Amino acid sequence: MDRLRALTQSLIDIGSIVIPTGNGMQEYKVEKGFAMAMSLKHNDEVAVAQSFLSKGTIFPYHNHDNSEEVLVVYSGEVTVVTDEGKYTMKPGDSLHICQGCGHLLHAITDVKIIAITIPPDSKAMPKYRGNGQQ
After folding, report:
1. How far apart are CA 1 and CA 81, in angstroms?
2. What pLDDT does residue 134 have?
3. How many whole angstroms from its chain centre is CA 14?
4. Could you tell me the end-to-end alpha-carbon distance of the chain, in angstroms, rounded to an integer?
């Protein structure tokens, strides 16, 4: 827990680091590296996005007040630090993050993650802008 506090001093409002790019994509302002997400599905019940973090990126400590999140690693390796523990994830690994649980991601390599939030966190997840879906 001390290491978590050392990496990030406080829980951030994830909406404050979002940079909308249009077409269901958005970048996130991170201090080091690059992070972006592309919406695969977004409706009133679920949001599914493919996220990319470049090697070395630390996605800041945040939570989803009204959503649960499931992370599935598609490629690469990432360490996820939550209020409940530290997990190193590789392709095929998944992690359930409970509603309100603080967490951060540290990309060990370039990493692609499928992120699912139920219900969608409107501040965090990009909205799909194609085929008539929102």
Report:
1. 9
2. 40
3. 9
4. 38
